[in-house]
Amino acid sequence: FVSIYGAETLLGGGMRYIPGINATALVALLVCLASIVSVPRRRHAAYAMLVAALLIAIRMAADWHLRIEFATSISVLAMYGAIRLRSRWRDRAALIDPDTGLATLRALGGDLAARRAATGYVVMAKIHGYENILKTLTARQRAAYICKLGDRLRVGDPRLAVYVDGHHLAWVVDEADEDKVVAHLEGLRAIFAAPVTLDTQTIDVGITFGAAPITERNRERCIAAAFAAVE
After folding, report:
1. What pLDDT digit, counting tens, does each position of 140-178 carry?
2. CA distances (Å), origin 37, targets 42, 50, 105
3. What does the alpha-carbon distance between residue 122 and residue 227 come to, in Å, rounded to a whole number?
4. Least CB-packed of 44, 105, 169, 225 within 10 Å?
5. Cβ–Cβ < 8 Å for 164, 114
């Protein structure tokens, strides 16, 4: 059988050798081309096609009379994939506050950019005396305190998305009428007049609201404008 395989190999022609550095350079070039695709779905499809092409090349190399060193290419591709996964994990972690589980203002910026209608208001709420809360409450109690304030904001809409950043809470009001927004905030201020009970402690709530309209031109700046308004 060894002789037969040797004879068939000679009849089939010599094997071409492609060193690992050439294969790695080609894979790196394809990865770079896939990474510059702006649309996420298309970029992910390009990555999938690259992996599939590498697997097909490994399977068909002998049929094409090629001897290719794939070890370095696979290692480079695996390292790049691990780096990308870690980067995506960090980006997703930055969108969620680890203590309360609420979305962060960074997530609000992304949601505003993806928002279809450029109407409504971004409302910012500033919690007064938060420095004293940091000194007197544990991390678990602070998180519970913020979550209870978020629940009060959801009185009219249980599905309202509330965003947090330290002693600031934010949300989006779809109402475009300024007078109705002001009336809504006046009602919320009356609700926040009641203290919050945590375990055996009763904490008075001091809060200020500020709002900024959402327009097509100021989507990226309306969060900063709401910050300025609440101050």
Report:
1. 888 888 898 889 888 878 888 999 988 899 999 888 888
2. 7, 13, 27
3. 10
4. 44
5. no
